[in-house]
Amino acid sequence: MTKHGIRRNHGKCVLSPELSSSNNPLKGPRLTRRLFGRALMAVSALAASRSTLLSSALAAEPIKIGFGMAQSGPLGGNGKAALLAIEMWRDDVNARGGLLGRPVKLIYYDDQSNPTLIPGIYSKLLDIDKVDLLLGGYGTAVQAAAIAIVMQRKQVLIGTGAVAVNEKYNYDKYFQMLPSGPNSRISSSEGFFQAAMTMEPKPKTVAIVGALTEFSRNVILGARENAEKYGLKIVYDSGYPSNQMEFGSIIRSIQAANPEVVFVASYPPDSAGIIRAAYEQKLKTRIFGGGMIGLQYSELKQQLGPMMNDVLYYEFYVPAPTTNFPGIKEFIKAYQERAKKVGADLLGFFLPPFAYAGMEILEKAVTVTKGLDPNAIGRYIHATTFDTVVGKVAFAPNGDWAKPRIFFVQYRGIVGNDVDQFKQVGKQIIVEPQEFASGTLHYPFAASQ
Amino acid sequence: MVTFNLLLNAVVTGILLGGFYAAVTIGITIAFGMLDIVNIAHPVFIIMGSFIAYIVNRKFGVDPILTVVVASPLFFMLGIAIFRFYYAAFESSGKGSLRGLAFFFGILFVIEVTLLLAFGVDYRLVQTSYIGPNVGFGHVDLPLRMVVPFVGSIAMVSGLHIFFSHTFVGRAIMAVAQDEFALSLMAVDTVAIKQLAFGIAIATGAIAGGFLIVIQPVDPSLGREYIGRVFAICVLGGMGSITGTVIAAFILGVVETITSTLFGPSWAPAVSFTALLLTLAVRPSGIMGR
């Protein structure tokens, strides 16, 4: 017998009876039925707990939505307002249990209204932050920069407030929450010219001026086409650099051409400068306005005050008897309460309802397609008419709204610089399109009187 | 069609604009032209002045230009503090140029972001009795919004000219620009003189900010639009020359407005800077440079 309990038997090594029993350390315990059953139960329990943990981990993992949004620069005011609306949507959807049972997390960076920063921002969002969905931010130039990357990566992109970005690409997963319709270049000024042509006698001449930027260039191209369509002779047509600070000489040159209609495509500081210069020079014209960004901001409305009277320019939403879309009043009320705290635009009429509506559309598409597949989401959005806080929204093949709905609005009876007067119904008269009109055009332009 | 009336108004508006450009640039003339400090952050001090004018005008209804004149001593002291740090960190060890430039870039961004966080991104305007009305002289219409800052600019620049040419400290500043070593041999503390000059430069920036917010809306990042312009005017006028700065500012203002009127505003920057290049080609030291 060896010390390990092994004895030799005719040259073979056999275990001693003591070591052949179940307590043989070399053999381990015998696998009895009881033992097998216990082992099976243990494995099942372990598998179930790991599965629960995995599900919990997946359920808790947020759906990340990434984007660049102007928080500074010329478009910062609108960008901040749009961001607040998107955050409101996030809070609302998370309160309802999230998207696909998962909480929504926003990852965004300030693009400073600078399109050169967009490639870096969106590369980071996709490659480092590993976002699940993308948004397009605010502004024509930045979305024009973003669409190239998004096309390459085959993602869906819903943007706000851009003109003719998808004109050259016709990318099938790009959508634009600007109610400008499939031909945004034309529709950005069509209502203005339609309103102008209601004057008696009909105008014959127009002056066109705008900033040398992507947005203004697109709008002015459309304005020229509309001028030709309505038989107006263009007697002044010029652009100015984006850092122009003196507009008196431009207004004087326009006046020298004696146009009956003046169309301006401008960014916020220029919009204020041009309106001030028009009043200082007592610009004599019948209709003045156009695609003037900045006049939608509460700060500029408040500061310009009575100088806003009779300016005909575009808004996307104003409180009027004809714009009572389901949910809009509640949204505006909630937005205005939160805007005070974060220093965003106090009125929230311009971009916020459309930024929020864009998120409603994304939410519906993700929920119905039950996933984050860009192709499925894109197909669903193209095929559906959505009910949103800005009314029914359907998209054309190029991602713009199927039907344009830009309001051309004139301010009336603005007195002093109190911002609350702009919340009142009746101060902002929708003159075009006719189906939403709440009044008729007033002319000639107040500054000339 | 270009008429005499149009052209005359363009020239006059250009002179008004040039007066404002002079106010904006004079601080760079002192800091860069006289002290050889590349204060790339100068425009952001202009914006700081604009925002101080905005707050006081909004809350108390005080005139923005009066506000910045009253606040200018604070900016003077801020300028002294910044120079002391700059001198201790960079100039005293002979590392003024490139590292100093990085320092001022840092100041530019820090102040800009601070203004963004404090005031947000909206454009700000002020309300005064002279924003809106015009004053007419024959064929010429002058918006008071441009006239008042012009008068203020000329007053400030004239005061500085008298200071630099007729006071001991002013002459010491001119001397330190000419030959710092020679001045030090005359038992003058050149560092103290330079810090006074830098303080004056920053104070003029704040006053220019009051003019700016009268003329146009202001946001925290607007300062960057002026960096190229102010250095161009400083170089065109001749480094360190107050008179040259004023002449260069007028030239740039008039060229911009005449080009806007005759050829369209899109050509104005190209024509202005072509004028700068041609002048420097003929006279590399600038109009009044030595």
Structure description:
The complex is a heterodimer of chains A (449) and B (290). By secondary structure, chain A is an alpha/beta fold. Chain A folds into 2 domains: 61-179 and 326-393, Response regulator (Rossmann fold, 3-Layer(aba) Sandwich), CATH 3.40.50; 184-315 and 412-448, Response regulator (Rossmann fold), CATH 3.40.50.2300. Chain A has helices spanning 17-20, 33-60, 76-95, 118-127, 140-153, 184-196, 214-229, 248-257, 268-280, 298-304, 328-342, 352-369, 374-383, and strands spanning 6-9, 12-15, 63-69, 104-110, 133-138, 157-160, 174-176, 205-211, 233-240, 261-266, 287-292, 312-315, 386-388, 391-393, 407-411, 428-432. In chain A, helix 9 (268-280) links the parallel strand 10 (261-266) and strand 11. The longest helix of chain A has 28 residues, at 33-60. Chain A is elongated, with a radius of gyration of 32 Å. Chain A starts with 5 loop residues before the first strand and ends in a 17-residue tail after the last strand. Chain B is mainly α and 290 residues long. Chain B has one domain. Helices cover 74% and strands 3% of the residues of chain B. Chain B contains 11 helices and 2 strands, in the order H-H-H-H-E-E-H-H-H-H-H-H-H. Chain B has helices at residues 4-34, 42-60, 64-89, 97-119, 144-166, 168-178, 180-184, 190-215, 224-237, 242-262, 268-282; strands at residues 134-137, 140-143. A two-stranded antiparallel sheet of chain B has the order 1-2. In chain B, a hairpin with a 2-residue loop joins strand 1 and strand 2. In chain B, helix 2 (42-60) packs across helix 8 and helix 3 (64-89) runs antiparallel to helix 8. The radius of gyration of chain B is 19 Å and the shape is globular. The chains are: A alpha/beta (449), B mainly alpha (290). Chains A and B meet through helix 3, strand 9, helix 8, helix 9 and helix 10 of A and helix 1 and helix 10 of B.
